[in-house]
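Tokens in:
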């Protein structure tokens, strides 16, 4: 099951847009990992936008989809013959993820938060 879908916008310095996202759109900064900043609605935690400079994978996903079972999503993508552009990986910041190319050619970051982080 999909938990949330987040667009990943690109910027050289993700933090430079903070005034726009917080003061104009009314979002709050939920996460800042240096290479990515995520802003979230104070009233709806699923309403989010991320601003990304360069993902540590060397690829820049167009959007992120959090799922309940990332292993199941990965197996389904492989069974459909979808192009996996970044392998299923346990990242040091507590997510398990892979990147897959969707039918439009966009790169999707499919992820789940790990319980054991």
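Residues out:
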């Amino acid at each position: 099951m999909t938990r949330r879908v987040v667009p990943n916008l690109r910027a050289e310095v993700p933090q430079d847009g903070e005034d726009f996202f917080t003061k104009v759109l009314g979002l709050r900064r939920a996460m800042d990992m240096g290479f990515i900043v995520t802003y979230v609605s104070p009233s709806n935690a699923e309403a989010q936008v991320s601003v990304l400079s360069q993902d540590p994978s060397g690829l820049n996903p167009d959007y992120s989809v959090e799922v309940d079972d990332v292993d199941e999503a990965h197996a389904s993508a492989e069974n459909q013959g979808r192009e996996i552009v970044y392998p299923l990986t346990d990242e040091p910041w507590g997510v398990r993820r892979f990147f897959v190319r969707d039918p439009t050619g966009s790169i999707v970051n499919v992820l789940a938060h790990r319980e054991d982080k």
